[in-house]
Specification:
The complex is a heterodimer.
Chain A (H helix, E strand, L loop, with lengths): L20 H15 L6 H14 L3 H13 L4 H21 L1 H11 L2
Helix pairs in contact in A: 2-3, 2-4
Chain B lengths: L11 H7 L11 E5 L25 H13 L4 E5 L9 H8 L5 E6 L10 H10 L2 E5 L5 H8 L3 H14 L11 E5 L10 H16 L5 E4 L6 H9 L3 H10 L14 E4 L5 E2 L2 H5 L31 H4 L6
Parallel strand pairs in B: 1-2, 1-7, 2-3, 3-4, 4-5, 5-6
Antiparallel strand pairs in B: 7-8
The chains are: A mainly alpha, B alpha/beta.
Chain lengths: 110, 318
């Protein structure tokens, strides 16, 4: 079945650098530095990445960070909780904008 | 049993050749003894398909031959495995016979089998002979651990670890070594063993007051029950590709088969426990322990197959 998203494209991510190798190098150097062990562990960073992947709805990232989280020793319960965090922020972000709606409605109506 | 699946990755032997590499023996310093396929569990990752219904166990005669072998040659490490080694009725004779000549004797346990009736004598012997216990403990999460090893094993394993700690195992300065082994619960390869060990140490201590010496994390070997699951779940091809792509030529130097001789429950000899699972004999030959006059000489070629990718992926399998 044809789709805009192809799972086999994920391992080819590095090919994105073919037309702009210097920019790609800067991005991938930064990317790798971000995910290296720091104040947060690699495992914790992978859980954050998994949650963000759901927030930005990137199927490639969901696929990649599900595998990475498992490889780093996370379990499905932790990964599910991480997604709930993303969901709570996404939902909360919509809901808190409801105050804008209320302010505007207040101004326009009796 | 050989694979009837289409070849998905370059054969392991070919991958060695194309890189100008070979896998040959060093001095054999490790004796591994598989005392049988009988086990109280039927773990989904078991390459030997061990379980409660398996009848294949090492006989008293073969136990005597193995003990004799350990006396004839000087091994630095003796590794007793199964199945659940605790369930072999001759296990006390074996461990007693192997101990006391300077070798580091290790007993691989799934922990739950150590708690069965009549096992007090076994634990006493382990304490007396300072047998190293290498315990399977796949995950810190009950659901994840039990999806691999079966219902009810997690809390039982915790209880046995606490009991072993109480006897001194895993405690600094006791001389009683308790190591954990964590195999992934699925088709993925573990990475960064030291970070995983730190996390296991912290959580086991904080939640259950458990101490241990070292944690080892190994990729599951695509054989036996694990291979069947890989095929049935549609993960076989991607798992083999992942193993092959992670191949690290440097890991070849340290793979266990270079210095190990593995004795099967029936006394036949192998280069490792995984070759044993597919009946691939020592150096490709079928040799019984009763026929072994000398240890395999350094330089002898090791029998390989595609499952060897699991031992050479990443940092290897020692």
């Amino acid at each position: 079945m044809e789709s805009y998203y192809q799972p086999e494209d994920l391992p080819k991510f590095a090919e994105i650098g073919q037309e702009a190798p210097e920019l790609a190098k800067k991005f991938f150097d930064y990317y790798n530095a971000v995910f290296a062990e720091g104040e947060l562990s690699e495992r914790e960073k992978s859980l954050i990445a998994l949650a963000v992947a759901h927030a930005v709805q990137c199927p490639y990232c969901i696929d990649a960070y599900t595998q990475t989280c498992l490889e780093k020793g996370s379990n499905k319960a932790e990964m599910t909780e991480a997604i709930h965090v993303a969901t709570a922020i996404r939902g909360g972000a919509s809901l808190v904008h409801g105050l804008q709606m209320r302010n505007t409605a207040q101004k326009l109506s009796f | 049993m050989t694979s009837k699946l289409p070849q998905m990755v370059e054969p392991f032997s070919q991958s060695l050749k194309s890189r100008g590499l070979s896998l040959t023996r060093l001095k054999s310093t490790v004796l591994q003894i598989n005392v049988g396929l009988l086990c109280n569990l039927a773990c989904r990752h078991c390459h030997l398909e061990a379980g409660p219904a398996r009848q294949e166990i090492m006989s008293a005669d073969t136990v005597s031959q193995v003990v004799e072998l350990s006396k004839r040659f000087s091994f630095g490490v003796i590794d007793v495995t199964g199945g659940a080694p605790e369930m072999n009725p001759h296990i006390l004779d074996l461990l007693g016979g192997l101990s006391g000549r300077g070798a580091r004797v290790m007993l691989r346990s799934n922990l739950t089998a150590m708690d069965g009736p009549g096992r007090e004598q076994l634990i006493d012997l382990c304490l007396d002979k300072k047998v190293v216990i290498v315990a399977s403990f796949p995950a810190l999460n009950e659901t994840q651990a039990e999806s691999q090893r079966g219902k009810g094993i997690f809390l039982k394993s915790i209880e046995v670890l606490q009991r072993l700690n109480g006897l001194g195992y895993g405690k600094t300065g006791s001389g009683l070594e308790l190591n954990l082994v964590s195999n992934p619960a699925g088709a993925f390869i573990p990475n960064n063993q030291s970070q995983l060990e730190d996390r296991f140490r912290q959580i086991l201590m904080n939640k259950w007051g458990i101490e241990f010496n070292q944690l080892f994390s190994f990729a599951n070997v695509p054989l036996g029950r694990f291979k069947k699951w890989l095929v049935a779940s549609g993960n076989y091809v991607s798992y083999m590709e992942k193993l092959a792509h992670s191949q690290n030529p440097c890991a070849l130097d340290g793979v266990m088969c270079r210095s190990l001789i593995s004795v099967g429950w029936d006394g036949y000899l192998y280069d490792c426990d995984f070759n044993q699972a597919i009946g691939l004999g020592l150096g490709g030959q079928q040799i019984h322990i009763s026929e072994l006059e000398e240890l395999p000489v350094p330089g002898l070629e090791i029998a390989v197959s595609d499952h060897c990718y699991a031992c050479t992926a990443g940092s290897g399998f020692t």
